[in-house]
Structures are given as C-alpha cells and as structure tokens.
Amino acid sequence: MRYQVRSAARCLGLLLAAAIGTATGALGVAVPGSADVACSTPAEPGQVASQLPPEQLMLGFRRAWPVTIGTGITVAVIGTGVDDDHPQLRGGVGRGLDLVTGSPDGRTDCVSHGTAMASLIAARSAPGTGFVGVAPGATILPVRITERGEMGQAETSLLARAITWAVDHGAKVVNVSLVTPLDTTELRAAVRYASERDVLLVAAAGSRPDGAEDPGSPDLADPPWFPSAYPGVLSVGAVAGDGVRLASSPVSPEVDVVAPGGALVAATRQRGHAIWSGTSVAAALASGVAALIRSAEPGLTAAEVERRMVATANQIPGGTGSGGYTHGMVDPYRAVTETTAAGGTRVLPDLPPRTADLVAERAAARWRSARHSALVIGLCAGLLVLGTVLAVGVRRRRTAGRPRGTGIAGPGWAGPAVEPDLPELTDSYFAVPKPPARTRG
After folding, report:
1. Are 54 and 251 in contact (CB under 8 A)?
2. Residues of 262-296 as b/e, b for ≥16 C-beta within 10 angstroms?
3. What is the full DSSP assignment across 255-295?
4. How does it sit in the membrane (predicted)?
C-alpha cells in the first residue's frame, strides 16, 4: 500500500508540473547585442585572442577549406553595420547600405555586434591570432538597420527593407542575427521575396529570459521569433561546448539546426576581439557554412543548401530531435564533401513542411496539451480513489478477527473479506476544453 500511496503522490507531482507548464510560457526578451555606447564614443579596441576556445573548434570548419573557403559568395549581414577597419575584415566588406541614416554605406558599427557576426562568417587569418571566420573567402555586404542592436516596430520595418535590398544587390546568403517577436506582413513578404529569388536566409532562433522554465509539454514551445519562424528560413539554435542547449536558446519546433553559441571569440569594431554568446553567434557560424556550400556547389538552390545543412547535421548528446536541437549541429566538412560512391550529389530527404500560420498552430498545440493534461487528471484521480478503497479494505481485512497487539490471525478469523465494488469514474474527470476554431491560412 505504501507503494500505491507513493505512486499517487508522484502522479500528483507530475500532474502539478504539467498544469504549471501548460498555464505558463516563456516571455520574450530584448534581442542580444544592445549596448549603451553611442557612435560618438571612441571605440575601445579589444584584446587580441591568440587562441580559440574549444567550443569554437567544435565545427572543424578548417577541414572543409581544401574544398572551398567561400570564394565568390556574398553574405549580407543585417544588423548594426560592420566596421571594415578591423584588420581581419579589410578588403572583404562591401559598401552596403545604412537604412538608419539613409547613407549608401553600411560600414559603420556603434556597438560591434554586426562586426562580430561578420567576423565569425568571413574574418581573414592574421598574424598573432588564432581567430578566423568559417568562410574567409566570402564577401560581406553590411546592411545597417539599428544603432544599438534593439529591434522595435521601426527596426522590424527596416529589417524587411534590408532583406529585399540585400537580395537585389547580389547576396546569396543573408544573415539575420538580430530578430524580432513581431510578425508583420511586410517581413513575411520580404522573406518570400528572398526565397523566390534563390537566396538563403539564416536567422538566429531568438532568446529566452534568464531562469525561464522549459515548456511543460512536448506540444508546447517558446514564443516564436521572426524571421526565423517563417518557412524558407534556416533557424539556428545555440549549444555549449558539451552539446547541451544554452539556457538562452529557445525550445521550439522552428529550430532547424544548432551551432556553438557559448562564449565564442569574435571581432570588435576597430581591432581586437571580445567574447560573444547566444543564438546570434550560432547563426553567424551557420551562415558561414552556408557560404561554403554555395561556393562548393554553385548549382544547388537555396532550398537544397538548407536541406543539405539539415541532412548532414551531427547528432549531439544534448538531445537531437527535440525542440531545442531538432536535426543536430551543423557540420561544414560533411556538408561540402559527402557524396555517393558514384560521385554524384547525395540524395537528401525532404524537409518537413513548416506551417506558416503560427498563431493557429500554437493554439492547436495548447489544446492538445490541455486534453492530455485532463486525461492525466482523470487517471490520477482514479488512482487516488482506487488506492483509498484498497487501503480501507486491506486495513479492515487485517484487523477483523485479530486480537489486538498480535501480528497473527485470531481463532475467529474466517479468511479474506469479499472485495468491495469500486466506484466508477465519472465523465467529469475527463472533461477537456473545446478545440480552437479552425482558421484559414
């Protein structure tokens, strides 16, 4: 009976956890990269990193360099601009565009965020440092949409314009490491515009508030971030050196792949390096991998590049297949080298379709989870009723006919009592909320 009581208590504990997970969700937070410095503040050069941390070496992207270093591919970096005065970026950054000031030159960065992302993608080798980008042969096209790395309504509108402009000016890969919780018609149209013109968008999966609990059900997920949640965008989460998802990386079915994102070395404006972390840097690394593929296999479409990155991703200890990891960690070497024995391109599986109507999808998922929770409630209630009845019955059988103070049956004990009839569970235990109204996409 103690086992039954403990099982009931454990069931109630799981029930409470499920209820809390269903009723609450992670709140959106400001995107990473904001800072209090202004463009008028002189840039403080960072220290030069002589070596890379082990987390940054996890990708092994140097193994792909005998095949390609990304030559001939233009990668647009949308964000805070890029400082091309950094020694490892000189000669590799185009003029770009500044949508903040209206200047036809995006090579100004007040907070170093865009410079850091560009360096992770395409920084050249330099004496005295072990830092280098994934695709040092690629060209960066900077598009500046914010001075401080903050994404509000105005910046979201500029993001849509920036994507369209980058597509029209030769970008084959577009990196969006600053994302927004706002789902707008203008941004959707810009993503569709890029997809229709064979340009791959690689976006950070977003962020989670410090201390946020994971969703309480496999059917639930963190709130979506855009444009990473749109179909046709490669959404990138972040893992630490042990392969475990960073606490700041969202749990969501929209996450396609992950990349290292914990405490990575990247360039700062002017010169030197600093430590960066989060899904922003993970998306930058994945953008570099996309540039390698597009350089090595120029005949592949953007959709095929995305499929290749997903199909060649490596399983990791953290939990490949779950919402925080999905298909695994990108592998540059496998992505540019794996072929069939006959030398042809490996046949890759189709990506699962992603629903564009995210609001309806989330509502349906929450209804499924509520139905599941109601079933758990009914089962736990039934277990409690059963345990109580059995406990009373056993206690009566053990005490009937026994002298007090003895542990054996007395002379008047006539064997076990007849098992009592158990009450049937009522339908109220299995009540579930009505499903959400179907919406037409």
Report:
1. no
2. bebbbbbbbbbbbebbbbbbbbbbbbbbbbbbbbb
3. --EEEE-SSEEEE-SSS-EEEE-SHHHHHHHHHHHHHHHHH
4. Single-pass membrane protein
Where does the pLDDT of residue 288 fall: very low under 50, low under 70, confident under 90, or very high at 90 and above? very high
For residue 339, the cross-strand partners are: 345
Backbone torsions φ then ψ of 432, nearest 5 degrees: -125, 155
Q: Does residue 264 fall inside a structural domain?
A: yes
Alpha carbon distance 224, 211 (integer Å): 18
pTM over 0.85: no
Asked if the structure places residue 99 within a domain, the reply is yes
Q: Which residues pair with 260 in a beta bridge?
A: 239
Report if residue 186 sits inside a domain. yes
Q: Which domain covers residue 303, as residue numbers?
A: 54-210+217-337
118 burial level (CB within 10 Å; 0-12, 13-18, 19+): buried
In terms of DSSP bridges, do strands 97-98 and 139-144 run parallel, antiparallel, or are they unpaired?
parallel
Q: Residue 239 is inside which H or E element, if any? A: strand 233-239
Among 279, 285, 283, residue whose Cα is nearest residue 248: 279
* Calpha distance 131→302 (Å, rounded): 28
Domain-embedded: residue 232: yes
- In the 8-state DSSP scheme, what is residue 246? P
pLDDT in the model for residue 384: 73
Total structural domains within the chain: 1
- Bridge partners of 143? 78, 97
Q: pLDDT tens digit string along 386-398? A: 766 666 565 555 5
Write the CATH number for 62.
3.40.50.200
